[in-house]
Amino acid sequence: SSSSSSGGGSEPSDLEEGEQPGAVNQLVLEMLVYLGRALVYLFPVYLAGYLGLSLSWVLLGLFLWMSWRRKRKGKQGRLTNALELLEDEKVTIAKQISQQELPPWWVTFPDIERVEWINKILLQAWPYFGMYMEKIFRDSIEPAIRGSNLHLKGFTFTKVNLGEKALRITGVKAYTKEVDRRQVILDFQLSYAGDCEVNVEVKKLCKAGVKGIQLHGTLRVILEPLIRDMPLVGAVTMFFIRRP
């Protein structure tokens, strides 16, 4: 019985000895990262002194860097909020209301209706809409850009992918009583925080791309004049009320 108790008592010590190297490695890694960041931050000061530059250039660079960090942090926060809204709308709305942030349009204005059934259709049709847009980019936009300038003859879209996150309509307001009887005005509250990616290339020398686009705004759709023949609408006009 004594041998079994001694054997059981040795297990925790062995476990602690096995865990210590991992903790030490983690501490060393954190110290190396800290030293690396310190060297990166101090290198411009050293370079300015080595080249005999004025300290004002270093201060100006530091100010620009801090402004860029602040702007990037704000943009990242807005992107995170938008993605949270797309993932779990109810939880995000409750959190925003408690924090007195901007709620969705259908919370602020009771005459704006929710249209979740349209969002379900958009989500189901989004992959096919992406295929259609890729065809538009390659068959229409790409030739037009190539023909606009001699230096852009080698312009091509190397990747056009709208991703899996579909555009959402957070609310719709219909104007029928305050307008002419032969027209219908609809305001669509649009919210898009997608994972799309569009890459371009010019003669394999210049490459560029766009990804993670955000768009939030109010799209006004005017149906007029209403006519007696199908499709019952003579023309459709669409524009953003304010810059999205």
Automatic annotation (TrEMBL):
InterPro entries: Extended_Synaptotagmin, SMP_LBD, Synaptotagmin_SMP. One of its GO terms (molecular function) is calcium ion binding. It is found in: Membrane. It holds the Pfam family SMP_LBD. Residues 111-244 form the SMP-LTD domain. GO terms for biological process: lipid transport. The chain crosses the membrane at residues 38-65. Keywords: Calcium, Lipid transport, Lipid-binding, Membrane, Metal-binding, Repeat, Transmembrane, Transmembrane helix, Transport. One of its GO terms (cellular component) is endoplasmic reticulum membrane. The keyword Chloroplast does not apply. This is SMP-LTD domain-containing protein.
